[in-house]
Every structure is written in structure tokens, then in C-alpha cells.
Task: inverse folding
């Protein structure tokens, strides 16, 4: 129901119109949603001028649904507390950021009565998938909030999976990215081995794409134009997500050391275990 009291598409406030967020806004507008948008870059505001542009992030709170597509937990905690505090009790925050579930708990405390309606909506896919309406989105939260979120993310998602309570979508996405990192490392290792054996990178990737050793990682490497541009693109995101995954596992007392080692071992330099992981692994082996 819209804010005027009649049945309508939810109005959407949007933060984070970057590489992924901008095509999301385009799809929302094309679907008929009224979008209240905060964007810092003048060129982004010009491209998305069909939205109602606002001068400050807090102004997106005057919507039925607020969609946040920020980079990490730090950005969320910098930008969103004021937004959540300004939301009405029935406004739902849909967070696309891959990060830590406890960040959502901290944000919820800024809402009316310390209980803001927040759905974690971690996704898997690229900007091209958004443009084609084929993004995969995982939703975690209360049933009534999930129903509202579906009305919005359906504008750019082809597959929407409910994973459980708030935080479950983020945990699902972190495990997904953990496996993606491990498979990427193995695939890139095979590319290096192929070169040493006299096999062209493109020839090996083409063969893997139709063979039993193929994977989404292999397809992404090909789509990015080869190993080098792929590594440059994914490194900061995977490093961030593996650190978050390690922290979440450590807090839950879950040993992911084998998977984390596989994800960090290979051509992509994804850093050493965080202090919380190291402490957890030490406790596990005492």
C-alpha cells in the first residue's frame, strides 16, 4: 500500500547507485516504482534523472522501502543510522551489502522502539544480470517484511530465495563467496599450469566451459577478459567478504579453517586470517 493509503507499488528510497546499484535503479524505474534517490556523483544523477533526486541520504527514508547497496559494513554504519532513525515503523530497509549480520542488529536499534524492519538481501550476480533481470537475491527477515522486499527486488531479480530469519541471507552469501573464492583459486591455478604445459589461457577456459571441470568462476574469468583483469576486479570484494566470513564463523564457534585456507591459497592474494579467526583456530586446536 502506498503512503496515500491506496494499493500501489511501494515507493523506493535508494542509496548506493554504483556499478550494481545504478542498473537496479533503472530497473525499478522501468517497472513503475517511484524512486527517491541519493547519489553523490553528478554524472549518476544526470543518468538517473527520472528518479526524484534528494540532497541528503536521510531524505530517502520518506519511502515505503529503502534499498541500500553500499560497499561494506563501515559505509553502512556511517550512512544508515540517520536513515533508519528517520524511517516510519512500517518502512522496510532492504540491505544488499555483503557484510556481517550484527551490523544489521546495530542498525535496527536506531528504529522506532529499537526495532527497525530490516531485510538482508545479499545477492549473487553481475551488473549485466541486474540489467537482464536475472540477479539472484537471498532474503532473510520477518515474513511480512520479506513479502514487501520481494515486491521491490523482483524488478531486477530473476531468482529470489528466502533463507530464514534476518542474517541468514548474509550467512548464505558469505558461504557462497567462500566457495567462489576457493574455486576461483583452483581455476586460476589450472590456468597457470596450462600455460606451463603450452596451453593458451583462452583455449583452456573454452575447454573448461564445456567440460566437467567448468564453473561459474571459469565463466567469470572468461567474461572479464582473462585471469589478470578478473583478479584485479574480484580481489577487494573477496578479501572483504572472506574477512567477514571468518569473523561470523568465529563468533558462532564454527571451524571454517579448511575452506578458508583453500579460498586464500592461490594466485589471488586474499590476505592472512583476521585476528578473530586466528584466535578461534587456536582454541579449536588446543
Result:
Amino acid at each position: 500500500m502506498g503512503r496515500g493509503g491506496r494499493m500501489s507499488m511501494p515507493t523506493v528510497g535508494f542509496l548506493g547507485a554504483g556499478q550494481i546499484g545504478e542498473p537496479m535503479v533503472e530497473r525499478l524505474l522501468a517497472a513503475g516504482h517511484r524512486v527517491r534517490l541519493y547519489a553523490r556523483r553528478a554524472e549518476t544523477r544526470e543518468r538517473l534523472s527520472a528518479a526524484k533526486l534528494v540532497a541528503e541520504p536521510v531524505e530517502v527514508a520518506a519511502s515505503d522501502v529503502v534499498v541500500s547497496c553500499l560497499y561494506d559494513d563501515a559505509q553502512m554504519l556511517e550512512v544508515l543510522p540517520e536513515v533508519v532513525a528517520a524511517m516510519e515503523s512500517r518502512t522496510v530497509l532492504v540491505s544488499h551489502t555483503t557484510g556481517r549480520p550484527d551490523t544489521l542488529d546495530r542498525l535496527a536499534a536506531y528504529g522506532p522502539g529499537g526495532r527497525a524492519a530490516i531485510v538482508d538481501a545479499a545477492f549473487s550476480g553481475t551488473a549485466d544480470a541486474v540489467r537482464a533481470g536475472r540477479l539472484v537475491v537471498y532474503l532473510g527477515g520477518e515474513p511480512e517484511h520479506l513479502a514487501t522486499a520481494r515486491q521491490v527486488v523482483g524488478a531486477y531479480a530473476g531468482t529470489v530465495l528466502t533463507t530464514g530469519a534476518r542474517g541468514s541471507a548474509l550467512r548464505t552469501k558469505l558461504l557462497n563467496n567462500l566457495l567462489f573464492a576457493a574455486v576461483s583459486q583452483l581455476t586460476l591455478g589450472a590456468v597457470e599450469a596450462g600455460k606451463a604445459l603450452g596451453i593458451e589461457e583462452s583455449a583452456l577456459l573454452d575447454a573448461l566451459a564445456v567440460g566437467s571441470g567448468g564453473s561459474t568462476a571459469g565463466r567469470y574469468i572468461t567474461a572479464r577478459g582473462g585471469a589478470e583483469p578478473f583478479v584485479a576486479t574480484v580481489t577487494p570484494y573477496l578479501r572483504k567478504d572472506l574477512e567477514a566470513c571468518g569473523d561470523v564463523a568465529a563468533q558462532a564457534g564454527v571451524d571454517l579453517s579448511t575452506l578458508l585456507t583453500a579460498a586464500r591459497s592461490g594466485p589471488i592474494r586474499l590476505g592472512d586470517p583476521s585476528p578473530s579467526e586466528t584466535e578461534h583456530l587456536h582454541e579449536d586446536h588446543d
